[in-house]
Amino acid sequence: MENDFINDKASETYQLKRWRGRFGDDYIERNILEEWKIEPGKEAFRRMLGKRKIGSILEVGSNIGLKLVYLTELLKDKVDLYAVEPNKKAYSALISEKRIDLKKAWNCSAFDIPLEDASIDLVFTCGVLIHISPDDLGWVTDEITRVARKYVLCIEYFSHNPEKITYRGRKNLLFKRDFGAFYLERYTNLKWIDYGFLWKCESKSYDNLNWWLFEKHK
C-alpha cells in the first residue's frame, strides 16, 4: 500500500489546526479499538449498506480506522478500502492496523481529496462533518460528492436547526444540523435511498447518530 502526506490549502482553518494537534491526539486516546465494538459495528454497516454491490469505499476522516475494521470484517476482501486522515498520530495508527487491508491512505484533510472524479463507489463520513465550520462545510461535501461514483453515506449527529455546541469545553469545534437536507439542497444529482438512526443502546459502537445514504446520478 502506498501512503502520502498532502499539504492541503485548508491547513490553516481553526478546526483543522485543533484536530491536527494535541486536541486531535486526545481524541485518539479516547477511541481505541476493542473487540466488543466489532460485532455491533459490523451490524450497523450491514444495515446501512444492505446488499448493494460496492467495489470500493473511501472513509473521509478515518481516524485510527475503527469503521474500516468493521467494514473489513463485514466485507472481507470483496472491497478496496481507502482513507483520508489529517491527524498524523491517527494516520500512523491507521496504516499500522493489521486488521485493515487498505488499498491506499493519505495524511490529508477532506478539503482536498487526492482522487479523481467519480473514482470511488461509496464515500462516507462518520462524526466528521460535525467538526467542519458551517462556512467550510460545502467545500468538504463538494469534494466528497465529486469523488463518489455511486453512493454517499453520511453518519453524523442531527439537529433540526443548525447549532453550535461547546465540545469538551471548547467552542467552534462541533456543529449540528440536518446534514441529509444539506446534501439534498446542495446537490441535485443526489437522491436519498435510505436513512436511519444508530441508537447507542443497540449499536454500542456508535453514539446516537443519524445516517443518510444517497445515490449519485449523472
Supply the key terms.
218 residues, alpha/beta, Rossmann fold, two-stranded antiparallel sheet, 33% helix, globular
Question: Could you explain the architecture of this structure?
Answer:
By secondary structure, the chain is α/β, with parallel strands linked by helices. The chain has one domain: 3-Layer(aba) Sandwich (Rossmann fold), CATH 3.40.50.150. Helix content is 33%, strand content 26%. It is built from 7 helices and 10 strands. The strands form 2 sheets. The protein has an 8-stranded mixed β-sheet, with helices on both faces. Helix 3 packs across helix 4. The radius of gyration is 16 Å and the shape is globular. 36% of the residues are buried. The model has no long low-confidence stretch (mean pLDDT 93).
Structural class: alpha/beta
Kindly report the average pLDDT value: 93
Please write the CATH class name.
Alpha Beta
Name the strands of the widest sheet in spatial order.
1-4-3-2-5-6-10-9
Instruction: List unreliable stretches of 5+ residues.
Output: none
Measured between the Cα atoms of the first and last residue, the distance is 31 Å
Provide the gyration radius in Å.
16 Å
Count of beta strands: 10
**Major sheet details:** 8 strands, mixed
Encode the helix/strand succession as letters.
EHHHEHEHEEHEEEHEE
In the CATH hierarchy, the third-tier topology is known as Rossmann fold
- CATH superfamily heading: Vaccinia Virus protein VP39
How many domain units? 1
Helix content: 25-40%
